[in-house]
Design a protein that fits this description.
CATH topology: Gyrase A, domain 2
Number of strands: 9
Number of helices: 3
Order of helices and strands: HEEEEEEHEEEH
Strand content: 25-35%
Largest sheet: 4 strands, antiparallel
CATH class: Alpha Beta
Structural class: alpha+beta
Shape: globular
Helix content: 25-40%
Radius of gyration: 17 Å
């Protein structure tokens, strides 16, 4: 029974990683950065669940940056207090780093929604200007983080 379950998990992982993860011109970018709408914000927004806080957020529809700004993505697993923290590190290309620095400088104190395949991964508060690299931490497993990193790298 245990062997069948492990085989099933491995088979699913192989299918995910072997499947072509390419965007067609008509597809929506898989990774998107949006602002979280503030209370009085009347801008068009989607309602998305934040997996970290379990709250529902209004995420503005305007895409500030997408995966075209990404040079590469990788998975990092680091132990904090004995518990593994899984994150996806996103290195921006030159144009993406410049744009991300502008976005973060102009929106200090606001929340930035990081959306992948229409699902909110994280919505941290912008505390400083971010240029070359972003680290996305969230409530995902190492396998889920690998899917995100592989999809971003395949879209290059």
């Amino acid at each position: 029974m245990k062997t069948n379950r492990i085989f099933g998990i491995l088979s699913a992982a192989l299918i995910l990683f072997a499947a072509p993860l390419q965007l067609r011109a008509s597809d929506t970018p898989r990774l998107q950065f949006h602002l979280v709408a503030e209370a009085a914000d009347a801008a068009p927004a989607d309602t998305l669940a934040d997996p970290g806080s379990k709250e529902t957020l209004r995420v503005r529809k305007e895409v500030l940056l997408d995966e075209s700004a990404v040079a590469r993505a990788s998975v990092t697993i680091s132990p904090v207090r004995g518990v593994p923290i899984v994150s996806v590190t996103v290195d921006f290309n030159e144009a993406g780093a410049k744009r991300f620095a502008q976005i973060t400088a102009a929106n200090m104190g606001k929340r930035l929604a990081i959306v992948f395949d229409g699902k909110l991964l994280s919505a941290p508060t912008i505390r400083s200007v971010i240029r070359d690299k972003a680290v996305i931490t969230g409530q995902f497993t190492a396998a889920e983080a690998e899917v995100v990193a592989n999809a971003l790298n395949a879209s290059k």
